[in-house]
Every structure is written in structure tokens, then in C-alpha cells.
Design brief:
Number of strands of chain A: 10
Radius of gyration of chain B: 32 Å
Oligomer: heterodimer
Largest sheet of chain B: 4 strands, antiparallel
Largest interface: A-B, 39 and 31 residues
Helix content of chain B: over 70%
Structural class of chain B: alpha+beta
Strand order of the largest sheet of chain A: 6-7-8-3-9-10
Distance between the termini of chain A: 32 Å
Strand content of chain B: 5-15%
Radius of gyration of chain A: 18 Å
Largest sheet of chain A: 6 strands, mixed
Shape of chain B: elongated
Strand order of the largest sheet of chain B: 2-3-1-4
Strand content of chain A: 25-35%
Order of helices and strands of chain A: EEEHEEHEHHHEHEEEH
Order of helices and strands of chain B: HHEHEHEHEHHHH
Structural class of chain A: alpha/beta
Helix content of chain A: 25-40%
Amino acid sequence: MIEFRNVSKYYKNDWLALNRINLKFDKGQFYYLIGRSGAGKSTLLKMIYMEIFPSEGEIIVENFSSKTIKQNEIPLLRKRIGVIFQDFKLLKDRNVYDNVAFALQVTGEKYQNIRKKTLEALSLVKISHKRNSFPYQLSGGEQQKVAIARALVKEPFILIADEPTGNVDPEGTREIMDILFDINTKGTAILMATHDYSLIKKSIGKIIGLREGKIVNPEDIFKLDFSGGSKE
Amino acid sequence: MIYILQETFKGFFKNKSMNLITIGIITISIFIFGLFIIGTVNLLNVITNAEDRVKMVAYLKEDITEEQIKNLENKISTILGVQTTEYISKEQALEDFKKDLKENSNLLSAFETNPLPPSIKINISMAFKTPENLKEISEKIKIFDGIDDVDYGAEWINELDRMVKILFLIDVILGIIIVFASIFIVFNTIRLTVLSRKEQIDIMDIIGATETYIETPYIIEGTIYGFFGSFLSTIILYILVEFISKKIPNIIFMNKNALFFFLFFGTLLGLIGSILSVKQCIFEIREIKKDDNLKRTLKKRSA
């Protein structure tokens, strides 16, 4: 369903953000994308929802190809993908419910379905009780839950999470991870980029290592980072 | 569609101070445009009035017969550009002259006989009131039998014509500058309101909102700004003109058509300004994001 075919990304013609990436992401799986800051994790994720396009190679996401997709087809692609960020990216001027309902409104969901779907998504991430609160009234963990609800309400086939616990306290982190695992067992694929290796449950997902834009054996990254290399 | 209107409404009331500033700036720039229009309308009015006064008079020889006069009037009427003719007899001319002199009419008693010649007053149609045409017409009339001389204030006409041309040129140049300046200002002002909601646009873009959905609220908003701006400036202009016309009569406000055009122009300015600026902003935001991400990656890696 998502495939990277020999994907490279140059920056200013000489520097390689990504170097000949070949990857395949299957439905329903849990993927960890690990590597230090600057390894190219975000670039790789942004290529999936086509915010960044490869300089070389091709990315296939369901029926869309990075080579042939038109600007007006990108919203259709993004309807199929949920994305959450380290900084949550919630709309500060509206409450939790509106933040989630917003995702349905802008993608043209039928009016009758919006309320039901929004409430379902909110209860899935256990934040229904705060549906009238505004983002500034919530903790980092709670804000991320809202972001997850907003991503899930579109019923995407994959949820992309870019350092989802970067701004969340340890307790919130555990809750967020539980929610992600829960979503995954319900059939949504998860692709999570992180440099916090303690979050990884090896029994659950597949780990992809990225260093300086190249795919490497994740064990090498663990070893390097725990033997003197700084973690951040 | 409901959501788009809701978004417009929200956007409009959430950033009140920003919106007021935007409307204010648009009002001012459209106001300046309006001053220009009023200036032009009045300038054209002055020119028309001046040209209206342009009259041609053909002085006739003293010994002319009535039949000859009739004949002459007919011939003059057939010349291209001549609207009407009117015969002024010696006696009539004296009467008119006396009226013009009013209390000084006794000056005329110095003359024993009527010194004024009979004449034919010739009204020239507006389009022919140029120095070249007037000259041509007067020369055609001069060669007729019984004509002594033709007068149309040649020097004055030339001066007026030169002045009109210069004023018109200045007016057109000024107009072009003002139109472009207004478009530029309106465009940039709306751009700022759009950029101030960059975060929201970014989020909508990532969620998968179509461009129409992202753009339409801003376009509606911009059009409303344009309308309000031109409406407000029309009111201000009207008050201003009322005030000035008390001191200088004959100042005219825009006529109904011009007023309608003016409101239409302001609204259109808002519409075009917002379409251009929102499209450009979305493009800009996307480009900045692409670049930012890569630059950040590079920085982290080299650190």
C-alpha cells in the first residue's frame, strides 16, 4: 500500500536528505522509524503525504504515485492518511470537539455523520469528557490525544506519527503509546518516527533504521547510540 | 458550503482588530481612488463648460439683403459640424450689447449710429470643437459671399485645447498610478490577513482540505473588505464633497453610474486581491515548509 522505490532527495543539488530508499509498508502493521535527529525521518514521512516530493525515484501510496499525482488530488490522498506531530498542530481558537469535527468538515463529510464520527473518535482516545475544552486548557498528552482523534476520524488506513511523544510527559507518553497500539490492533497501520528507543516494543512492530538518509540495520543504531553517541 | 460560510464568519469576527485595520487601509486606498474619480469628473465638467462657451460668429457685410442672409444660413447649416445657426440683426446686436454693459450702456451714446454689424451665431457640435475643425469650418464660411469675417476666439481655443490635453495626460498618468497602487495595497493588506492565519491554512492543508475549501473563506472575506472599504470611502467622499461644495459651488459628486462602478471596482479589487493573495500565500506556505524541513535536517546533521 505504501512503497518507496529508489527514493532520493537532494537539497540544493548536492546534499542528500534521503539516499536511495527502498521500503514497503503493509496494511495493519506497526512500524517504528528510528534514527537520530537529522537522519531524514521527517523528510521520509512528509514524502508519504506528499508535502515533499522525491528528487529521484517514486513513492506509491495506494493508487497515487508521486510521479503522476496532481495538486488537486493531494487532498484525496491526505484524506486517506492520518498525521500527528510533535507540536500537535491543533487550532487554538476552537475547542476539542471542533478541532476533530473540522477534519471532517474540510474533507466534505456529510453533515449528519459528523457529530457521530467525531464523538466516536473522541471516545476512542478517551478525551470525550474534555470535548468543550480549548487546547490551552489541556496537557501535552491530552492535546496529542485530540490530534490522534482528529487523524482517526477520517478513518485512514495508516497513521503517521512524527515524534508523537516529544512534548508529552512520561505518563501521557504511556497513554499515547497504548492508544497507538490499540488503534493498530483495530486494523490501522502505524508508522511512528522516534528517537526515544524506550518506546519500542519489539514484539509488536517492525523497526526501520535511518542514518544520514540511508536505511541501516536498526541494531547498529541502538549500538551506536548506547555506546557513547549522544542520543539527541 | 455551510462550513465555508461558517469559517468566513468566524474568521471575520475572531480577528476584529486585524479586520478593522484591513478595512481601514482598503477604505483609505479606495478613498484616494475616489478623490481621483471626483477630480476627473469635475475636471471633465469644467472642460465641457468651457467648450460649451465656444461659439462661432460670422459677421456679415452691412449691405446684405434678407434673401442673402437666408441663403447664407442654409449654406452654413450644411457644413459638417454645424448644429444650428441664428441670425442676429444690427438692432438685436445692439440690444444684446446694451444688456452686457448694463449700467454702462450710456457709453454707447458716444456713437451716433449703430456700430455693430449684423451676424450669424453658429453653434458647433461638441465633437468639432477642436482648433483644427473650428479653423476648417471658419475657412469654409469665410469664402461665402456676404461674409465679412468669422470669429471663434482662435487663440483662446488653442490655449484651452493645450490645457485640456496636458490635464488629461496628467489625469491618465495619475489614474494609472492610483489604480496600481490601490491594487498593490489591497493585495498586500489581504495577504497579511491570510498570512496571519498561516498556521490554520497549514493544518487544513495537511488534514486534506481541498484548495477551494481553504481559499473560499478568504476570498469571500476579501470581497467583503473591498465592498465595505468602497462603501465607507463613498460616504466619506460624499460628506467631503458636500462640505467643499458649500465653499466652492459647482463641485459635483459622482453620478449614479460612476457610484455604482466605484462600489463595483472596490468589491472587485477585494475579490481579485484576495484570490491572488490567498493563492500566492498557500504556495508560499508550502514552499517554506519544504525548505524548512530540509534545512532543519541539514542543520541537525551537521551539528
